[in-house]
Design goal:
- Two copies of one chain form a homodimer.
- By secondary structure, chain A is α/β, with parallel strands linked by helices.
- Chain A folds into three domains: 3-77, Winged helix-like DNA-binding domain superfamily/Winged helix DNA-binding domain (Arc Repressor Mutant, subunit A), CATH 1.10.10.10; 82-192 and 367-390, ATPase, nucleotide binding domain (Nucleotidyltransferase, domain 5, 2-Layer Sandwich), CATH 3.30.420.40; 200-361, Nucleotidyltransferase, domain 5.
- Helix content of chain A is 42%, strand content 23%.
- The first copy, chain A, has twelve helices and 16 strands.
- In chain A, the strands form four sheets. Chain A has a five-stranded mixed beta sheet, with helices on both faces. The first copy, chain A, has a five-stranded mixed beta sheet with strand order 14-13-12-15-16, with helices on both faces.
- In chain A, a hairpin with a 4-residue loop joins strand 5 (93-100) and strand 6.
- The radius of gyration of chain A is 23 Å and the shape is globular.
- In chain A, 53% of the residues are buried.
């Protein structure tokens, strides 16, 4: 490694340290930034200047540097220039959102579409249109997109989806099908990160994404746990009953067969959403509120199965709390109680505390938000990423 | 924080960096240590001097510093002074070992004893005797014990065992019952670390400890995954059949009820080990080798149940490989095949590769070794720990 390259990577690292501190502690004076980061005031001032030029921070107002310091101007993140695009492909909808550097949501759009009956190329073509709409709206607000992440409902291995059984996709390389540079990550992982960054979850939790498939993302100490190959958190295929109904994953008796959206609608006597359009859950909610026995019984059983799978998950992964998201958010009132009862019966002898079940405030938006948030966090950690992009 | 304290903690950190580098790259010259750590040659020489004085490294032989350098002496870890004591309480045995700074095992002893019929005080009194024997043998070899860790068969929360169902222990504060300063950790966690440090496992694996209870420890990127409260890896209580036999943990149909040592011996028609003495597994092995149908059938069923629980574990935790240890090591030939078959049937549609099942070389010794190794790794990371201890 040459001396010049070393110097450059150290500069990049320091720029990330400064911007990270602005994010954490801003509005903050240059003098305080120098004090906290251990960099010289001259270096900090040069970097703040660069960050202002690239539209990532603004300087405004006046803050006092401690008791005796002179008043100085305050540096804070700017939401007016750099933004990120989050996209989501789910089984029965597509969605997009643009989030600025301050994590404020600037535009958001979704489209109900049955991706089970569409080819990957068709689905990606729809997603491209939705993405373009979001980008156009962001640009009209003066924003530039620093990067894109796509959330997909299946395990992702280096951009490749080996199998997303609920979509019927096999060996699909998602970024190759989109006409803009993008990274891909699992929907449940991104939903957990969305909950961490945009929701009200603490730093230790398991976020459960209830959709047609059920996934989960474990956050420990504010970091996502991914496992050895990035495939962790497939809660939907945890075995509830070993000789239960066959699952699209090739297994039997998986949680999805009891508590997935389709299974739940079927058990509730709703034919499933026609054409995959998400009309089924609102109708289920109406019938639950009306006190119809069959939907209530279906939620009771789904909740019990969820409780069994979560018991195994708690024993293996030891999450702090458990946040129920996706369709489990609107269904929380009916699903959570039997799940909690099942977990308490099975876990409370061995553990002082059984993890609490809470409801996600983000529901179905968590993954799309997490996808955009992931880009923002990477840009803040390495502002050169964006600068390189912007100078093109 | 005062300037002096800051300086001191930086010195402690640097000493750990130097010793860590000696461990990783030794034998190594002082000049190479300075080059790698970025510390001055003077600082490195002073630190190496201190480390020699405290018996943690030795200097010997001659190494050449690169092509043109002058030959210098080589610094390497010394196994002659600093050592660690590892202890294990299991349901039907106690064991102890002493490991030196180079991770060489210097003494090892075990005792079959039924801890289910003994009180915690009685068990700890037996352990104290065993520990004293090991310490005496180590001291006779000129070693000093820098620290002790105790492995226990249950989840540990800050030294407290809330419940170890297989021992019948509740709210036991283990270190309070031992007459030497010791830390406590879960047996399955320490067995995984033992496998990492003393076995032949790679950096990403799930180590399964098959004993009367079944635990697991997940290592990702060379680090143990502990979860939010340090209670992760309780594979033995993953639900195999939700309405299966009642388990001591308060649940039903847990893996231990199908593949734990007692359950397996019962299913094989062996009355269980009399008085808890581990005579049962050797007899089971004899009968398996003789081809007796009932023991073979018992292993087939236990292996299938293990395969179901591991399917859930793979979906949730995504381990690299799976290492079967404890009594599953001698039983590997009969247990692994049905487990592998079950996992392949359930996992191979969704995953490119199903994690390989391998056998632990350490078997029942893994936890005791991991307990001692944990102390050694802490001493190497912070050599002052030992120096403070030694100067008392």
């Amino acid at each position: 490694m040459t001396q010049a390259l070393r110097h450059d990577s150290m500069r990049a690292r320091n720029l990330g340290v400064v911007l990270g501190e602005v994010r954490k502690s801003g509005p903050i004076s240059r003098a305080a930034l120098a004090e906290i980061t251990g960099l010289t005031k001259t270096t900090v001032s040069k970097m703040v200047g660069d960050l202002i030029d690239s539209g990532m921070v603004t300087e405004s107002g006046a803050v006092r540097d401690g008791e005796r310091g002179r008043p100085g101007t305050a540096v804070e993140l700017s939401g007016e220039r750099v933004a990120a695009l989050g996209l989501e492909i789910n089984v029965d909808y597509l969605s997009a959102c643009v989030v600025d550097l301050t994590l404020r949501v600037r535009t958001r759009c979704a489209q109900a579409v049955d991706n089970r009956t569409a080819s990957p190329v068709e689905t990606m073509s729809h997603l491209q249109e939705l993405a373009q709409k979001a980008v156009d709206e962001a640009q009209a607000q003066g924003l530039f997109i620093a990067g894109t992440t796509i959330a997909v409902p299946g395990p992702v291995d280096g951009g490749l989806i080996h199998a997303a059984p609920n979509l019927g996709w096999h060996d699909v390389r998602v970024p190759d099908l989109l006409d803009l540079p993008a990274e891909v990550d699992n929907e449940a992982n991104l939903a957990a990160l969305g909950e961490l960054w945009f929701g009200s979850a603490p730093e230790d939790f398991l976020h459960v994404s209830g959709e047609i498939g059920i996934g989960a993302g474990l956050v420990v100490g504010g970091a996502l746990f991914r496992g050895a190959r990035g495939l962790a958190g497939e809660l939907g295929h945890v075995v509830v009953t070993p000789d239960g109904p066959a699952c699209r994953c090739g297994g039997r008796g998986c949680l999805e067969q009891y508590a997935g959206q389709d299974a739940l609608l079927r058990a509730a006597g709703l034919a499933g959403a026609p054409g995959g359009v998400p009309g089924g859950v609102p109708e289920l909610l109406e019938r639950l509120r009306a006190g119809e026995p069959r939907p209530l019984e279906a939620c009771e059983r789904a909740g019990q199965a969820l409780g069994v799978a979560l018991t195994s998950a708690v024993h293996l992964m030891d999450p702090g709390t458990i946040v129920l998201g996706g369709v489990f958010a609107p269904l929380f009132e009916w699903i959570a109680e039997p799940a909690r009862r099942t977990m308490t019966a099975r876990l409370s002898t061995m553990r002082h505390t059984v993890p609490e079940l809470t409801v996600s405030r983000l529901g179905g938006d968590a993954a799309t938000l997490g996808a955009a948030g992931r880009v923002i966090h990477r840009v803040i950690a390495d502002p050169y990423l964006w600068r390189r992009f912007a100078s093109r």
